[in-house]
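Our working data are protein records whose layout never changes between entries. The record below serves as our worked example for the rest of this section:
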Amino acid sequence: MDIQGVYTRLLAEGKSPATVRHIRVILHGALEDSVTWDFLAKDPMRRTKPPKAVKNEFQLPSPEQARALLQTAES
């Protein structure tokens, strides 16, 4: 199984890097248990790199936009 390829495919399908990282954590845990229980000789996850986390940029509303939003919410 090409684990790194799975990451690439999930990202291409539109999954967020955070989601792929969560999947990696779960898979890594399962494979580590497989090593502990002698089902596998080593964890293949050790050779993979998780996708980089993406910082979401956001912009605060201007004072005018905030006032307009509050006025709309109050009406």
